[in-house]
Amino acid sequence: MGGGQLARMSAAPATALGIDFRVLAAEPEESAAQVIHDVVLGRHDDMEALRRLADGCQVVTFDHEHVPPAHLEQLEAMGVAVRPGPSALFHAQDKVHMRQALTDIDVPCPRWRVVEALDHVEAFAEEVGWPVVLKTSRGGYDGKGVWVVDDAPAAADVLSVPLPAGAQWLAEERIEFVQELSAQIARSPHGQAVAYPVVRTVQANGICAEVVAPAPGLGAERAVEAQELALRIARDLNVTGMLAVELFDDGQRLYVNELAMRPHNSGHWTIEGARTSQFENHLRAVLDLPLGSPAAVAPHAVMVNILGGDVPDLYSAYRHVMARDPGLKVHLYGKEVRPGRKVGHVTVVGNDLDDLLARGRHAADYFTGAIDE
Fold first, then answer.
1. With left for phi above 0 and alpha for psi between -120 and 50, is residue 325 left, alpha or beta?
2. Thinking of the domain 111-173, which architecture would CATH place it in?
């Protein structure tokens, strides 16, 4: 369900595994619909479109979290295997539900509270201090639906924004982190699970800009703690498929920020950088096949997102980038270029982290037009 780049990048491992692969796309021009022959056109909130997608399929899975849970429950009632199931997926759809579930199983989170009015925010800020993070519980992604407010007037401005249907306002403590991390695991219905190396993520304007695997300078004990957290969350919330746990590291403790129950931007490096990519392991997991090794193939991997910039025709940059750096791997998503939109990524793997960072950043900057040589 979903025709974005995550579905597109799942097509190659599906082909290699001999899996027939169908995608639900809203339009023929969507990223995955361009490269997959079996496409059902329709919206993710249209029950009839979901039935057409599921007809004859053994398993239904996702490249986004926005399908209404009631629709998924109807598919399950029809005998369709939905993985992850609607009860698990709801944790990724609603941040209040997620925070409460994680609190109930003693997972460390920023302090949080559901708020309905400015005086609620002010009371919360008296406890945790300004600034405060305000979020819509539903509908936000890539920095959308999230605001950092320094004082009551700023909070009042945010609270005037209309909420998405069914959403609530969530106030959270702002964690002064030293780095952001992502711990990814794959888990199958019978409980087999594997953990990928913990990575460092760097955000720009709320959008993931860069991923380094493994996270530089992260001690082995802290890395294992992050992996164990992700494995425990997957078990206790009954997640099947890939789970990405986004974390704040304040130098002393880890705090869970967000969950994604699907392949995730922080795992794109695994296509070239791991024995088994996140996309292949997601397919293996939801089909209850034995999982592949998540081990890295080199000491370091760097993934840099290509964000929409001043170059409308991204393919015009291929010749320069590939000739300059034959070891670089480029993935373009077939999307219309818009400022700040994720339209592709580049990956480099090897031994010298500083060299990999320079090469990955140079290529991404050339694609966006930030540099021309």
1. beta
2. 2-Layer Sandwich (3.30)
